[in-house]
Amino acid sequence: MSENQRRAPAPAGRPLTVADVLALPVLAQGGPRVVTGPDGVDRPVRWVHITELTDPASFLKGGELVLTTGMPLPDDPAGVRRYVDELAAVGAAALVLELVRRYHRPPDALVAACRARGLPLVTLARDVNFLEVTQVVHALLLGNQADAMRRSQRIHEAFTALTLRGAGPEELLRAAAETSGRTVVLENLVHQALACEPSGGPAQAALTGWERRSRATVSGDGTGVRGPEGWLVAPVEYQGERWGRVVMLPGPAGPSGPSGAAGPSGAAGPSGVAGPSGVAGPSRAAGPAGVAGPSRAAGPSGAAGPSGAAGAAPAPAFGPEDVTVLERTAMALTIARLTHPTSWERSAHRGALRDLVEQRYRSPAEAHARITALGLPTEHSRFVAAVVDVPAAQDTARTEDRLSREAGVTGAQALVGLLAPTRLGVLLALRPSQPWRPVVERLSRAALGPAPGTAVSVGSPASDLAGVPRSFREATRVAEATEPGQALPPDRSFHERCDIGLGRLLFALRDDPRVQEYAERQLGRLLDHDARHGTHLLATLRGYLDAAGNKTVAARAGGLSRETVYQRLRAIERVLGRDLESGAQRTELHVALQALDALRGR
Protein backbone atom coordinates (compact mmCIF):
# COMPACT_ATOMS: atom_id res chain seq x y z
CA MET A 1 0.00 0.00 0.00
CA SER A 2 1.42 3.41 -0.99
CA GLU A 3 1.98 6.26 1.45
CA ASN A 4 -0.73 8.22 -0.36
CA GLN A 5 -3.22 5.38 0.11
CA ARG A 6 -2.32 4.98 3.76
CA ARG A 7 -2.74 8.68 4.45
CA ALA A 8 -5.64 9.22 2.09
CA PRO A 9 -8.59 11.02 3.62
CA ALA A 10 -11.62 8.98 4.54
CA PRO A 11 -14.51 11.25 3.56
CA ALA A 12 -17.16 8.75 4.75
CA GLY A 13 -20.07 10.23 2.91
CA ARG A 14 -18.67 13.58 1.76
CA PRO A 15 -16.76 14.44 -1.42
CA LEU A 16 -13.06 15.00 -1.68
CA THR A 17 -12.20 18.69 -1.26
CA VAL A 18 -9.40 21.00 -2.29
CA ALA A 19 -8.12 20.88 1.30
CA ASP A 20 -8.21 17.08 1.26
CA VAL A 21 -6.18 16.91 -1.96
CA LEU A 22 -3.61 19.46 -0.81
CA ALA A 23 -3.03 17.42 2.33
CA LEU A 24 -2.15 14.28 0.37
CA PRO A 25 1.57 13.45 0.62
CA VAL A 26 1.95 13.58 -3.15
CA LEU A 27 1.03 17.29 -3.09
CA ALA A 28 2.03 18.14 0.48
CA GLN A 29 5.67 17.47 -0.43
CA GLY A 30 5.47 20.42 -2.79
CA GLY A 31 4.80 22.84 0.09
CA PRO A 32 1.34 24.08 -0.99
CA ARG A 33 0.31 27.59 0.09
CA VAL A 34 -3.15 29.07 -0.36
CA VAL A 35 -2.61 32.54 -1.83
CA THR A 36 -6.20 33.53 -2.60
CA GLY A 37 -9.66 32.17 -1.87
CA PRO A 38 -9.05 30.45 1.47
CA ASP A 39 -12.80 30.16 1.91
CA GLY A 40 -12.89 27.89 -1.12
CA VAL A 41 -10.51 25.17 0.04
CA ASP A 42 -13.48 23.05 1.04
CA ARG A 43 -14.92 23.06 -2.46
CA PRO A 44 -15.55 19.57 -3.81
CA VAL A 45 -13.02 18.23 -6.30
CA ARG A 46 -14.67 16.29 -9.11
CA TRP A 47 -11.53 15.66 -11.14
CA VAL A 48 -7.88 16.71 -11.57
CA HIS A 49 -6.81 18.34 -14.87
CA ILE A 50 -3.21 19.01 -15.98
CA THR A 51 -2.98 21.81 -18.53
CA GLU A 52 -0.38 23.82 -20.35
CA LEU A 53 -2.93 25.46 -22.65
CA THR A 54 -3.81 29.14 -22.82
CA ASP A 55 -7.56 28.31 -22.81
CA PRO A 56 -8.02 25.24 -20.58
CA ALA A 57 -11.58 26.17 -19.60
CA SER A 58 -12.93 24.81 -22.88
CA PHE A 59 -11.92 21.30 -21.73
CA LEU A 60 -13.44 21.59 -18.24
CA LYS A 61 -16.92 20.86 -16.88
CA GLY A 62 -16.60 22.27 -13.38
CA GLY A 63 -15.17 21.01 -10.12
CA GLU A 64 -11.68 20.32 -11.52
CA LEU A 65 -8.46 20.99 -9.66
CA VAL A 66 -6.32 22.59 -12.40
CA LEU A 67 -2.56 21.89 -12.24
CA THR A 68 -0.13 24.00 -14.24
CA THR A 69 3.55 24.94 -14.33
CA GLY A 70 2.55 28.43 -15.50
CA MET A 71 4.19 28.06 -18.89
CA PRO A 72 1.03 28.95 -20.88
CA LEU A 73 0.01 31.95 -18.79
CA PRO A 74 -0.34 35.13 -20.84
CA ASP A 75 2.18 37.89 -20.20
CA ASP A 76 -0.32 40.75 -20.28
CA PRO A 77 -2.69 41.44 -17.33
CA ALA A 78 -5.74 41.40 -19.60
CA GLY A 79 -4.86 37.94 -20.86
CA VAL A 80 -4.34 36.72 -17.29
CA ARG A 81 -7.73 38.11 -16.26
CA ARG A 82 -9.37 36.36 -19.23
CA TYR A 83 -7.62 33.10 -18.29
CA VAL A 84 -8.89 33.30 -14.69
CA ASP A 85 -12.37 34.51 -15.67
CA GLU A 86 -12.83 31.46 -17.90
CA LEU A 87 -11.71 29.08 -15.15
CA ALA A 88 -14.03 30.72 -12.61
CA ALA A 89 -16.95 30.78 -15.05
CA VAL A 90 -16.71 27.06 -15.73
CA GLY A 91 -16.55 26.34 -11.98
CA ALA A 92 -12.99 25.14 -11.51
CA ALA A 93 -12.36 24.09 -7.91
CA ALA A 94 -8.89 25.73 -7.69
CA LEU A 95 -5.82 26.63 -9.68
CA VAL A 96 -2.50 25.08 -8.56
CA LEU A 97 0.63 26.82 -9.85
CA GLU A 98 4.07 25.23 -9.57
CA LEU A 99 6.77 27.86 -8.81
CA VAL A 100 9.71 25.94 -10.27
CA ARG A 101 10.09 26.48 -14.00
CA ARG A 102 8.69 29.80 -15.22
CA TYR A 103 7.81 31.55 -11.98
CA HIS A 104 9.37 31.67 -8.53
CA ARG A 105 6.59 33.85 -7.10
CA PRO A 106 3.00 34.13 -8.30
CA PRO A 107 2.48 36.97 -10.78
CA ASP A 108 0.68 39.95 -9.29
CA ALA A 109 -1.83 40.01 -12.13
CA LEU A 110 -2.72 36.36 -11.47
CA VAL A 111 -3.13 36.93 -7.73
CA ALA A 112 -5.33 39.97 -8.34
CA ALA A 113 -7.50 38.16 -10.90
CA CYS A 114 -7.98 35.08 -8.69
CA ARG A 115 -8.79 37.23 -5.69
CA ALA A 116 -11.32 39.22 -7.69
CA ARG A 117 -13.13 36.06 -8.85
CA GLY A 118 -12.81 34.19 -5.52
CA LEU A 119 -10.87 31.39 -7.21
CA PRO A 120 -8.50 29.58 -4.83
CA LEU A 121 -4.93 29.99 -6.03
CA VAL A 122 -2.45 27.52 -4.55
CA THR A 123 1.28 27.68 -5.17
CA LEU A 124 3.79 24.83 -4.91
CA ALA A 125 7.32 25.76 -3.84
CA ARG A 126 8.85 22.46 -4.96
CA ASP A 127 8.60 20.19 -7.96
CA VAL A 128 5.63 17.79 -7.91
CA ASN A 129 4.84 14.89 -10.22
CA PHE A 130 1.49 16.02 -11.65
CA LEU A 131 0.83 12.64 -13.25
CA GLU A 132 1.14 10.92 -9.89
CA VAL A 133 -1.24 13.50 -8.42
CA THR A 134 -3.89 12.66 -11.01
CA GLN A 135 -3.46 8.92 -10.45
CA VAL A 136 -3.82 9.21 -6.67
CA VAL A 137 -6.75 11.63 -6.71
CA HIS A 138 -8.65 9.83 -9.46
CA ALA A 139 -8.28 6.54 -7.59
CA LEU A 140 -9.69 8.20 -4.48
CA LEU A 141 -12.56 9.78 -6.41
CA LEU A 142 -13.56 6.50 -8.05
CA GLY A 143 -13.26 4.70 -4.74
CA ASN A 144 -15.40 7.33 -3.06
CA GLN A 145 -18.10 6.96 -5.70
CA ALA A 146 -18.18 3.19 -5.22
CA ASP A 147 -18.25 3.61 -1.44
CA ALA A 148 -21.06 6.16 -1.72
CA MET A 149 -23.11 3.77 -3.83
CA ARG A 150 -22.58 0.98 -1.30
CA ARG A 151 -23.52 3.26 1.60
CA SER A 152 -26.59 4.48 -0.23
CA GLN A 153 -27.63 0.88 -0.86
CA ARG A 154 -27.19 0.05 2.82
CA ILE A 155 -29.37 3.05 3.77
CA HIS A 156 -32.12 1.93 1.40
CA GLU A 157 -31.95 -1.64 2.70
CA ALA A 158 -32.05 -0.52 6.34
CA PHE A 159 -35.13 1.68 5.90
CA THR A 160 -36.85 -0.92 3.74
CA ALA A 161 -36.38 -3.46 6.53
CA LEU A 162 -37.76 -0.97 9.08
CA THR A 163 -40.79 -0.30 6.88
CA LEU A 164 -41.51 -4.00 6.36
CA ARG A 165 -41.24 -4.54 10.11
CA GLY A 166 -43.85 -1.84 10.71
CA ALA A 167 -41.53 0.50 12.58
CA GLY A 168 -43.13 3.57 14.14
CA PRO A 169 -41.92 7.18 14.03
CA GLU A 170 -39.67 6.90 17.09
CA GLU A 171 -37.78 3.93 15.66
CA LEU A 172 -37.49 5.52 12.23
CA LEU A 173 -36.13 8.77 13.66
CA ARG A 174 -33.71 6.85 15.84
CA ALA A 175 -32.36 5.05 12.77
CA ALA A 176 -32.02 8.35 10.89
CA ALA A 177 -30.18 10.00 13.78
CA GLU A 178 -27.83 7.05 14.22
CA THR A 179 -27.09 6.86 10.51
CA SER A 180 -26.49 10.58 9.99
CA GLY A 181 -25.02 11.47 13.37
CA ARG A 182 -27.45 14.41 13.53
CA THR A 183 -30.58 15.31 15.48
CA VAL A 184 -33.82 14.47 13.64
CA VAL A 185 -37.26 15.89 14.50
CA LEU A 186 -40.76 15.04 13.23
CA GLU A 187 -43.32 17.83 13.32
CA ASN A 188 -46.91 18.29 12.16
CA LEU A 189 -48.42 21.15 10.18
CA VAL A 190 -48.93 23.34 13.26
CA HIS A 191 -45.21 23.06 14.09
CA GLN A 192 -45.58 20.77 17.09
CA ALA A 193 -42.54 18.51 17.50
CA LEU A 194 -44.07 15.06 17.89
CA ALA A 195 -40.84 13.09 18.05
CA CYS A 196 -37.21 14.06 18.52
CA GLU A 197 -34.16 11.86 18.36
CA PRO A 198 -31.15 13.88 19.53
CA SER A 199 -27.63 13.00 18.52
CA GLY A 200 -24.73 13.86 20.75
CA GLY A 201 -26.64 16.26 23.01
CA PRO A 202 -29.76 16.77 25.10
CA ALA A 203 -33.15 17.17 23.49
CA GLN A 204 -33.69 20.64 24.91
CA ALA A 205 -30.84 21.99 22.77
CA ALA A 206 -32.85 20.99 19.70
CA LEU A 207 -36.39 21.73 20.94
CA THR A 208 -36.05 25.00 22.87
CA GLY A 209 -38.17 27.61 21.08
CA TRP A 210 -39.15 25.00 18.51
CA GLU A 211 -42.38 26.53 17.19
CA ARG A 212 -40.84 29.98 16.70
CA ARG A 213 -37.77 28.57 14.97
CA SER A 214 -39.83 26.17 12.87
CA ARG A 215 -42.18 28.89 11.64
CA ALA A 216 -39.13 30.86 10.51
CA THR A 217 -38.14 27.87 8.37
CA VAL A 218 -40.50 28.00 5.42
CA SER A 219 -41.17 24.73 3.61
CA GLY A 220 -40.42 24.36 -0.07
CA ASP A 221 -41.01 21.72 -2.67
CA GLY A 222 -39.13 18.52 -1.98
CA THR A 223 -36.08 18.07 0.20
CA GLY A 224 -33.79 21.03 0.74
CA VAL A 225 -31.87 23.23 3.14
CA ARG A 226 -34.21 25.87 4.54
CA GLY A 227 -34.44 28.74 6.97
CA PRO A 228 -32.02 30.91 8.91
CA GLU A 229 -30.53 27.94 10.74
CA GLY A 230 -29.97 25.88 7.61
CA TRP A 231 -32.28 22.95 8.47
CA LEU A 232 -32.49 20.05 6.02
CA VAL A 233 -36.22 19.53 5.55
CA ALA A 234 -38.29 16.85 3.81
CA PRO A 235 -42.11 16.73 3.59
CA VAL A 236 -44.14 13.87 5.07
CA GLU A 237 -47.44 13.12 3.36
CA TYR A 238 -50.62 11.32 4.35
CA GLN A 239 -53.14 10.15 1.78
CA GLY A 240 -51.69 12.39 -0.90
CA GLU A 241 -51.59 15.57 1.17
CA ARG A 242 -48.81 17.15 3.16
CA TRP A 243 -49.13 16.12 6.80
CA GLY A 244 -45.94 17.54 8.30
CA ARG A 245 -42.22 17.36 7.78
CA VAL A 246 -39.11 15.67 9.09
CA VAL A 247 -36.18 17.92 9.93
CA MET A 248 -32.47 17.18 10.22
CA LEU A 249 -30.68 19.81 12.28
CA PRO A 250 -27.23 21.01 11.20
CA GLY A 251 -25.55 20.42 14.54
CA PRO A 252 -22.09 18.90 14.46
CA ALA A 253 -22.25 15.26 13.46
CA GLY A 254 -20.88 12.68 15.82
CA PRO A 255 -17.54 10.99 15.23
CA SER A 256 -19.19 7.99 13.63
CA GLY A 257 -21.62 9.96 11.51
CA PRO A 258 -21.15 10.07 7.78
CA SER A 259 -20.50 13.78 7.82
CA GLY A 260 -18.33 13.97 10.89
CA ALA A 261 -15.07 12.42 9.78
CA ALA A 262 -11.94 14.43 10.36
CA GLY A 263 -10.33 15.99 7.32
CA PRO A 264 -6.86 14.94 6.25
CA SER A 265 -5.28 17.87 8.03
CA GLY A 266 -6.88 16.72 11.27
CA ALA A 267 -9.52 19.44 11.42
CA ALA A 268 -12.99 18.05 11.86
CA GLY A 269 -15.72 19.21 9.55
CA PRO A 270 -16.84 18.00 6.15
CA SER A 271 -16.95 19.96 3.01
CA GLY A 272 -19.91 21.50 1.35
CA VAL A 273 -21.70 19.34 -1.14
CA ALA A 274 -24.46 19.76 -3.61
CA GLY A 275 -27.81 19.49 -1.91
CA PRO A 276 -30.98 18.38 -3.61
CA SER A 277 -31.09 21.59 -5.58
CA GLY A 278 -27.48 21.15 -6.65
CA VAL A 279 -26.17 24.11 -4.70
CA ALA A 280 -23.03 23.49 -2.70
CA GLY A 281 -22.59 24.90 0.78
CA PRO A 282 -19.01 24.69 2.04
CA SER A 283 -18.29 24.36 5.71
CA ARG A 284 -15.29 25.14 7.90
CA ALA A 285 -12.27 23.04 7.10
CA ALA A 286 -8.61 23.72 7.74
CA GLY A 287 -6.72 24.64 4.60
CA PRO A 288 -3.19 23.46 3.93
CA ALA A 289 -1.76 26.77 5.10
CA GLY A 290 -3.90 26.74 8.22
CA VAL A 291 -6.56 29.09 6.86
CA ALA A 292 -10.04 28.17 8.04
CA GLY A 293 -12.97 28.55 5.72
CA PRO A 294 -16.27 29.68 7.28
CA SER A 295 -19.38 27.55 7.30
CA ARG A 296 -21.96 28.51 4.73
CA ALA A 297 -24.97 26.24 4.51
CA ALA A 298 -26.58 26.90 1.18
CA GLY A 299 -30.22 27.80 1.12
CA PRO A 300 -32.57 26.45 -1.49
CA SER A 301 -31.75 29.21 -3.90
CA GLY A 302 -28.05 29.07 -3.25
CA ALA A 303 -27.89 31.99 -0.83
CA ALA A 304 -25.64 31.41 2.11
CA GLY A 305 -27.35 31.21 5.47
CA PRO A 306 -26.20 30.54 9.00
CA SER A 307 -25.54 26.95 9.81
CA GLY A 308 -26.82 27.03 13.35
CA ALA A 309 -28.22 29.11 16.15
CA ALA A 310 -26.47 32.32 17.07
CA GLY A 311 -23.30 31.73 19.00
CA ALA A 312 -23.09 28.05 17.98
CA ALA A 313 -19.99 26.52 16.47
CA PRO A 314 -20.06 26.27 12.67
CA ALA A 315 -21.93 23.14 11.67
CA PRO A 316 -20.88 20.65 9.01
CA ALA A 317 -22.74 21.09 5.75
CA PHE A 318 -25.19 18.42 4.70
CA GLY A 319 -23.91 15.76 2.34
CA PRO A 320 -25.63 13.55 -0.23
CA GLU A 321 -26.01 10.77 2.35
CA ASP A 322 -27.82 13.14 4.71
CA VAL A 323 -30.27 13.90 1.93
CA THR A 324 -30.70 10.19 1.18
CA VAL A 325 -31.27 9.37 4.86
CA LEU A 326 -33.85 12.14 5.30
CA GLU A 327 -35.72 11.29 2.10
CA ARG A 328 -35.87 7.60 3.02
CA THR A 329 -37.02 8.58 6.52
CA ALA A 330 -39.79 10.74 5.06
CA MET A 331 -40.87 7.93 2.75
CA ALA A 332 -40.89 5.39 5.58
CA LEU A 333 -42.86 7.83 7.77
CA THR A 334 -45.42 8.31 5.00
CA ILE A 335 -45.95 4.54 4.79
CA ALA A 336 -46.01 4.19 8.58
CA ARG A 337 -48.62 6.94 8.79
CA LEU A 338 -50.88 4.84 6.57
CA THR A 339 -50.36 1.60 8.47
CA HIS A 340 -50.48 2.80 12.10
CA PRO A 341 -54.06 3.32 13.29
CA THR A 342 -53.13 5.59 16.21
CA SER A 343 -52.49 9.20 15.27
CA TRP A 344 -48.96 10.36 15.88
CA GLU A 345 -50.18 13.33 17.90
CA ARG A 346 -51.83 10.84 20.21
CA SER A 347 -48.68 8.73 20.37
CA ALA A 348 -46.60 11.82 21.12
CA HIS A 349 -48.93 12.82 23.97
CA ARG A 350 -48.77 9.31 25.39
CA GLY A 351 -44.99 9.26 25.28
CA ALA A 352 -44.67 12.70 26.86
CA LEU A 353 -47.10 11.82 29.67
CA ARG A 354 -45.35 8.55 30.45
CA ASP A 355 -41.99 10.30 30.52
CA LEU A 356 -43.40 12.86 32.96
CA VAL A 357 -45.12 10.28 35.17
CA GLU A 358 -42.04 8.05 35.29
CA GLN A 359 -39.64 11.03 35.47
CA ARG A 360 -37.57 9.80 32.55
CA TYR A 361 -36.45 13.25 31.43
CA ARG A 362 -32.78 13.89 32.07
CA SER A 363 -33.36 17.42 33.32
CA PRO A 364 -36.17 19.93 33.98
CA ALA A 365 -34.98 21.90 30.95
CA GLU A 366 -35.48 18.86 28.71
CA ALA A 367 -38.99 18.34 30.09
CA HIS A 368 -39.87 22.01 29.49
CA ALA A 369 -38.53 21.92 25.94
CA ARG A 370 -40.28 18.65 25.07
CA ILE A 371 -43.68 19.61 26.49
CA THR A 372 -43.55 23.12 25.02
CA ALA A 373 -42.65 21.69 21.60
CA LEU A 374 -45.90 19.68 21.78
CA GLY A 375 -47.86 22.93 22.13
CA LEU A 376 -48.50 22.92 25.89
CA PRO A 377 -47.48 26.19 27.60
CA THR A 378 -45.03 25.64 30.44
CA GLU A 379 -44.35 29.24 31.42
CA HIS A 380 -46.85 31.15 33.57
CA SER A 381 -49.09 28.09 33.90
CA ARG A 382 -50.18 25.78 36.65
CA PHE A 383 -50.89 22.14 36.08
CA VAL A 384 -53.42 19.57 37.24
CA ALA A 385 -52.94 15.86 36.67
CA ALA A 386 -55.76 13.32 36.48
CA VAL A 387 -56.03 9.62 35.78
CA VAL A 388 -59.13 8.21 34.14
CA ASP A 389 -59.88 4.51 34.70
CA VAL A 390 -62.32 3.02 32.20
CA PRO A 391 -64.12 -0.31 32.67
CA ALA A 392 -62.60 -2.06 29.62
CA ALA A 393 -59.71 -1.56 27.21
CA GLN A 394 -62.06 -1.11 24.25
CA ASP A 395 -63.40 2.04 25.91
CA THR A 396 -60.05 3.86 26.02
CA ALA A 397 -59.90 5.18 22.44
CA ARG A 398 -63.40 6.64 22.56
CA THR A 399 -62.81 8.20 25.97
CA GLU A 400 -59.43 9.56 24.86
CA ASP A 401 -61.02 11.24 21.84
CA ARG A 402 -63.80 12.75 23.92
CA LEU A 403 -61.44 14.09 26.57
CA SER A 404 -59.18 15.68 23.94
CA ARG A 405 -62.13 17.42 22.29
CA GLU A 406 -63.63 18.53 25.59
CA ALA A 407 -60.34 20.01 26.78
CA GLY A 408 -60.34 22.26 23.72
CA VAL A 409 -63.91 23.35 24.41
CA THR A 410 -63.05 24.40 27.96
CA GLY A 411 -60.26 26.64 26.71
CA ALA A 412 -57.69 24.65 28.64
CA GLN A 413 -54.71 23.11 26.93
CA ALA A 414 -54.11 19.49 27.75
CA LEU A 415 -52.14 16.38 26.99
CA VAL A 416 -54.27 13.24 26.96
CA GLY A 417 -52.75 9.80 26.54
CA LEU A 418 -52.90 6.14 27.44
CA LEU A 419 -50.83 5.19 30.50
CA ALA A 420 -52.05 1.59 30.90
CA PRO A 421 -54.52 -0.68 29.06
CA THR A 422 -57.52 0.79 30.92
CA ARG A 423 -56.03 4.01 32.30
CA LEU A 424 -55.71 7.40 30.63
CA GLY A 425 -53.61 10.28 31.85
CA VAL A 426 -54.63 13.92 31.53
CA LEU A 427 -52.36 16.91 32.11
CA LEU A 428 -54.11 20.27 32.16
CA ALA A 429 -52.21 23.55 31.71
CA LEU A 430 -54.22 26.42 33.17
CA ARG A 431 -53.68 30.11 33.63
CA PRO A 432 -52.55 30.84 37.21
CA SER A 433 -55.82 32.62 37.97
CA GLN A 434 -58.07 30.06 36.29
CA PRO A 435 -60.08 27.85 38.73
CA TRP A 436 -59.24 24.22 38.09
CA ARG A 437 -62.28 22.49 39.59
CA PRO A 438 -64.83 23.60 36.93
CA VAL A 439 -62.48 22.45 34.16
CA VAL A 440 -61.89 19.07 35.81
CA GLU A 441 -65.61 18.68 36.51
CA ARG A 442 -66.45 19.23 32.85
CA LEU A 443 -63.80 16.77 31.72
CA SER A 444 -64.98 14.22 34.29
CA ARG A 445 -68.55 14.42 33.04
CA ALA A 446 -67.27 14.00 29.49
CA ALA A 447 -65.36 10.88 30.54
CA LEU A 448 -68.32 9.35 32.35
CA GLY A 449 -70.60 9.71 29.31
CA PRO A 450 -69.23 7.16 26.82
CA ALA A 451 -68.21 4.55 29.41
CA PRO A 452 -70.37 4.24 32.53
CA GLY A 453 -68.33 3.00 35.44
CA THR A 454 -65.40 5.24 34.56
CA ALA A 455 -63.62 6.79 37.53
CA VAL A 456 -61.68 10.07 37.42
CA SER A 457 -59.06 10.70 40.11
CA VAL A 458 -57.31 14.04 40.46
CA GLY A 459 -54.09 15.19 42.10
CA SER A 460 -53.56 18.57 43.67
CA PRO A 461 -52.43 21.44 41.40
CA ALA A 462 -48.74 21.96 40.63
CA SER A 463 -47.35 25.46 40.29
CA ASP A 464 -44.80 24.42 37.68
CA LEU A 465 -43.86 21.50 35.48
CA ALA A 466 -41.51 20.10 38.11
CA GLY A 467 -44.52 19.40 40.33
CA VAL A 468 -46.42 17.42 37.70
CA PRO A 469 -44.99 13.99 38.69
CA ARG A 470 -46.15 14.64 42.27
CA SER A 471 -49.64 15.57 41.03
CA PHE A 472 -49.77 12.35 38.99
CA ARG A 473 -48.62 10.31 42.00
CA GLU A 474 -51.42 11.79 44.08
CA ALA A 475 -53.98 11.08 41.37
CA THR A 476 -52.72 7.52 41.10
CA ARG A 477 -53.00 7.00 44.87
CA VAL A 478 -56.55 8.32 44.81
CA ALA A 479 -57.33 5.88 41.97
CA GLU A 480 -55.78 3.01 43.90
CA ALA A 481 -58.04 3.84 46.83
CA THR A 482 -61.16 3.92 44.66
CA GLU A 483 -63.08 0.66 44.43
CA PRO A 484 -64.92 -0.19 41.21
CA GLY A 485 -68.37 1.30 41.48
CA GLN A 486 -67.29 3.67 44.27
CA ALA A 487 -70.00 6.26 44.83
CA LEU A 488 -69.10 9.78 43.76
CA PRO A 489 -69.13 12.66 46.22
CA PRO A 490 -72.44 14.53 46.10
CA ASP A 491 -70.98 17.73 44.68
CA ARG A 492 -68.64 16.51 41.91
CA SER A 493 -67.87 13.83 39.35
CA PHE A 494 -64.28 13.05 40.34
CA HIS A 495 -62.35 11.74 43.31
CA GLU A 496 -59.52 13.52 45.10
CA ARG A 497 -57.33 13.10 48.16
CA CYS A 498 -59.83 14.43 50.67
CA ASP A 499 -62.17 11.54 49.78
CA ILE A 500 -59.77 8.91 51.07
CA GLY A 501 -60.86 7.70 54.52
CA LEU A 502 -59.73 4.64 56.47
CA GLY A 503 -61.70 2.18 54.38
CA ARG A 504 -60.38 3.50 51.05
CA LEU A 505 -56.86 3.70 52.42
CA LEU A 506 -57.02 0.05 53.41
CA PHE A 507 -58.48 -0.79 50.02
CA ALA A 508 -55.45 0.82 48.40
CA LEU A 509 -53.15 -1.23 50.67
CA ARG A 510 -55.05 -4.48 50.33
CA ASP A 511 -52.23 -6.25 48.51
CA ASP A 512 -49.73 -5.43 51.25
CA PRO A 513 -48.90 -8.63 53.19
CA ARG A 514 -48.78 -6.60 56.40
CA VAL A 515 -52.42 -5.57 56.02
CA GLN A 516 -53.40 -9.16 55.26
CA GLU A 517 -51.44 -10.45 58.26
CA TYR A 518 -53.02 -7.85 60.56
CA ALA A 519 -56.59 -8.76 59.55
CA GLU A 520 -55.85 -12.46 59.97
CA ARG A 521 -54.15 -12.02 63.35
CA GLN A 522 -57.01 -9.94 64.73
CA LEU A 523 -59.97 -11.86 63.29
CA GLY A 524 -58.70 -15.22 62.07
CA ARG A 525 -59.79 -17.22 65.13
CA LEU A 526 -63.28 -15.70 65.01
CA LEU A 527 -63.63 -16.53 61.32
CA ASP A 528 -62.49 -20.10 61.98
CA HIS A 529 -65.01 -20.43 64.82
CA ASP A 530 -67.91 -19.27 62.61
CA ALA A 531 -66.82 -21.67 59.86
CA ARG A 532 -66.57 -24.68 62.18
CA HIS A 533 -69.68 -24.06 64.27
CA GLY A 534 -71.98 -22.24 61.87
CA THR A 535 -72.19 -19.22 64.19
CA HIS A 536 -72.43 -15.55 63.22
CA LEU A 537 -70.08 -13.98 65.75
CA LEU A 538 -68.33 -11.83 63.10
CA ALA A 539 -71.64 -10.22 62.12
CA THR A 540 -72.41 -9.52 65.76
CA LEU A 541 -68.97 -7.96 66.25
CA ARG A 542 -69.50 -5.78 63.19
CA GLY A 543 -72.89 -4.55 64.44
CA TYR A 544 -71.47 -3.85 67.88
CA LEU A 545 -68.53 -1.85 66.53
CA ASP A 546 -70.74 0.03 64.06
CA ALA A 547 -72.91 1.01 67.03
CA ALA A 548 -69.81 2.43 68.75
CA GLY A 549 -70.07 -0.13 71.55
CA ASN A 550 -73.74 0.49 72.31
CA LYS A 551 -75.24 -2.98 72.95
CA THR A 552 -78.84 -1.79 72.79
CA VAL A 553 -78.36 -0.15 69.39
CA ALA A 554 -76.46 -3.21 68.17
CA ALA A 555 -79.29 -5.55 69.29
CA ARG A 556 -81.93 -3.42 67.61
CA ALA A 557 -79.93 -3.16 64.35
CA GLY A 558 -79.33 -6.90 64.26
CA GLY A 559 -82.89 -7.89 65.20
CA LEU A 560 -81.61 -9.69 68.31
CA SER A 561 -82.47 -9.57 71.95
CA ARG A 562 -80.08 -7.79 74.27
CA GLU A 563 -79.38 -11.05 76.12
CA THR A 564 -78.39 -12.78 72.88
CA VAL A 565 -76.05 -9.92 72.04
CA TYR A 566 -74.50 -10.11 75.55
CA GLN A 567 -73.91 -13.86 75.15
CA ARG A 568 -72.34 -13.48 71.73
CA LEU A 569 -70.09 -10.65 72.85
CA ARG A 570 -68.81 -12.79 75.75
CA ALA A 571 -68.17 -15.60 73.26
CA ILE A 572 -66.27 -13.19 71.00
CA GLU A 573 -64.10 -12.03 73.90
CA ARG A 574 -63.39 -15.64 74.81
CA VAL A 575 -62.48 -16.68 71.25
CA LEU A 576 -60.31 -13.61 70.53
CA GLY A 577 -58.98 -13.09 74.01
CA ARG A 578 -59.94 -9.41 73.81
CA ASP A 579 -61.76 -6.96 76.09
CA LEU A 580 -64.56 -5.32 74.14
CA GLU A 581 -65.03 -2.69 76.83
CA SER A 582 -61.59 -1.30 75.89
CA GLY A 583 -61.87 1.57 73.42
CA ALA A 584 -58.36 0.88 72.07
CA GLN A 585 -59.09 -2.80 71.47
CA ARG A 586 -62.41 -1.99 69.82
CA THR A 587 -60.53 0.40 67.47
CA GLU A 588 -58.03 -2.32 66.58
CA LEU A 589 -60.81 -4.74 65.78
CA HIS A 590 -62.69 -2.11 63.80
CA VAL A 591 -59.60 -1.44 61.64
CA ALA A 592 -59.22 -5.20 61.16
CA LEU A 593 -62.82 -5.45 59.96
CA GLN A 594 -62.27 -2.61 57.50
CA ALA A 595 -59.16 -4.36 56.23
CA LEU A 596 -61.10 -7.61 55.87
CA ASP A 597 -63.76 -5.79 53.84
CA ALA A 598 -61.07 -4.35 51.60
CA LEU A 599 -59.51 -7.78 51.09
CA ARG A 600 -62.90 -9.27 50.26
CA GLY A 601 -63.72 -6.39 47.93
CA ARG A 602 -66.79 -5.35 49.86
UniProtKB/TrEMBL annotation:
Ranges where the Purine catabolism PurC-like domain occurs: 20-141
Domain PucR C-terminal helix-turn-helix: 537-595
Biased composition (Low complexity): 256-315
Domain of life (superkingdom): Bacteria
Domain CdaR GGDEF-like: 363-480
Family, as annotated: Belongs to the CdaR family.
Name this polypeptide is given: Putative regulatory protein
